[in-house]
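Input record, target 12 of the design panel.
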């Protein structure tokens, strides 16, 4: 099984946000009228979601990335940090991550999840959402030889670097999760902070998008990324040779994040069969980047106004110790954006316990009746005709007693109990579920974690209104059998 570290909250969270560039918060300039508007102020690390962290780190250590000593040779502990998982929307799962510095480039922070339903994604280069890590090198032939000797698969037809425009040579390798990694050598290498002995000197990302104009609406018009590119499509013999594509046309663009820490090469294809990436944050093949922002709630609104929805458990920024707000929302092409903002002072305790003992006075206790007309279901789910749930105080936790009539008129009755102690409690009479666990999110919110065969399947996050009269439950995740869940149930206090 998994080696799990039930640590105090601060340590695992800090590892995920310090790479953003907020490490020296005490040295920030005082706020002025010019720097208080909602904005993206910088970018941080790039996180590929991987199936095996150890194998991934060994692969990138082979390429010359700066991997912490021992991280590639022995398994790292898993974390079940509740605040971190609330931001990720993966409550009840385990995760582990390690920062690996790309010499002269940004930080690579691969993340591995466990204890949650997963489905590996392997997008092709023409599929919207596909991302290629581009690694600038001084000697592509030397690094290719080292990689092939270690058994790394070469994706470029012929197995050798190809000549590209601008006196550039490049080759595509395959990482352990079947992602392409481009090694690129150019006569005009970027300015670099890499050591003189390092073959690797920089990095950027190449991302395929479904619609360049729509991407510009988010990143240029709302986020303030600089943007340049050609307006039309054209055949690209260089890309065809590099990636083995046959036919089709491509539109090229370049965008740079504020602060110039991260550069994206954008590709939009026409005339090639493609499938947009729609993987979840926990699926190997997904990816996320960190985005430093001001006025995080309003920046989140910039993304959701384009039709996206936060995956964070509460649908809104959560507090991360010691002094951050964080929320995750996918962009139009399924790149998960981790929006991070400092909150001033210590807005979350560094040594907060992962457990909670209820007093019985919390607003979620009581009898609640479903209001079907205000509830919303997707993916073919049918709501109950009626549901009455008693949320009762039980040993510092919750006891659920539910009586319902489903869409077909069948009556149901279930009872189960759980404590806020990060443990799973067996349940019977609910076929898709064999255990429930509960976690407190804040004074008005808690989430119910459903598992089957030890894997987290769905979350049901209950939020009590300020007046205590309404209980809104957002159900997310994946049921056994693969059906996606994204329902909103509204209950009224009786």
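The sequence produced for target 12 reads:
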């Amino acid at each position: 099984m998994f080696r799990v570290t039930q640590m105090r909250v601060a340590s695992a969270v800090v590892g995920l946000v310090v790479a953003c560039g907020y490490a020296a918060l005490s040295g920030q300039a005082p706020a002025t009228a010019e720097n208080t508007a909602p904005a993206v102020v910088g970018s941080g690390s790039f996180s590929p979601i991987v199936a095996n962290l150890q194998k991934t780190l060994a692969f990138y250590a082979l390429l010359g990335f700066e991997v912490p000593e021992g991280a590639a040779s022995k398994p790292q502990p898993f974390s079940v940090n509740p605040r971190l998982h609330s931001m990720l929307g993966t409550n009840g799962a385990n995760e582990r991550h390690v920062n690996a510095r790309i010499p002269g480039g940004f930080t690579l922070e691969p993340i591995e999840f466990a204890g949650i339903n997963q489905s590996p994604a392997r997008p092709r280069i023409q599929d919207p959402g596909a991302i290629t890590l581009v690694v600038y090198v001084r000697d592509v032939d030397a690094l290719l030889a080292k990689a092939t000797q270690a058994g790394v698969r070469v994706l470029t037809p012929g197995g050798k670097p190809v000549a590209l425009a601008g006196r550039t040579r490049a080759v595509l390798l395959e990482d352990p999760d079947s992602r392409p990694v481009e090694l690129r050598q150019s006569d005009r290498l970027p300015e670099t902070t890499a050591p003189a002995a390092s073959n690797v000197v920089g990095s950027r990302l190449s991302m395929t998008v479904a619609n360049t104009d729509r991407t510009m609406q988010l990143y240029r018009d709302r986020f303030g990324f600089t943007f340049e590119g050609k307006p039309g499509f054209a055949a690209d013999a260089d890309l065809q040779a590099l990636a083995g594509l046959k036919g089709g046309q491509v539109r090229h663009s370049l965008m740079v994040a504020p602060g110039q820490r991260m550069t994206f090469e954008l590709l939009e294809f026409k005339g090639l069969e493609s499938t947009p990436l729609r993987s979840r944050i926990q699926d190997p093949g997904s990816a996320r980047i960190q985005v430093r922002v001001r006025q995080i709630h309003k920046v989140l609104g910039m993304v959701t106004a384009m039709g996206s929805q936060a995956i964070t458990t509460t649908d809104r920024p959560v507090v991360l110790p010691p002094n951050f707000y964080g929320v995750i929302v996918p962009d139009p092409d399924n790149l998960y954006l981790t929006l991070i903002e400092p909150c001033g002072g210590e807005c979350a305790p560094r040594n907060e316990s992962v457990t909670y003992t209820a007093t019985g006075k919390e607003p979620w206790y009581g009898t609640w009746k479903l209001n079907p007309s205000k509830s919303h279901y997707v993916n073919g789910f049918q709501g109950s005709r009626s549901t009455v749930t008693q949320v009762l105080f039980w040993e510092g936790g919750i006891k659920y007693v539910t009586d319902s009539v489903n869409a077909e008129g069948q009556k149901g009755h279930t009872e189960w109990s759980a404590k806020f102690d990060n443990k799973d409690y067996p349940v019977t009479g609910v076929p898709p579920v064999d255990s429930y666990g509960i976690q407190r999110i804040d004074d008005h919110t808690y989430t119910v974690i459903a598992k089957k065969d030890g894997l987290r399947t769905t979350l049901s996050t209950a939020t009590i209104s300020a007046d205590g009269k309404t209980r809104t439950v957002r159900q997310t995740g994946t049921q056994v059998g693969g059906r996606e869940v994204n329902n909103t149930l509204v209950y009224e206090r009786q």
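Residues 366-493 form a domain with the Lipocalin fold (CATH 2.40.128.20).
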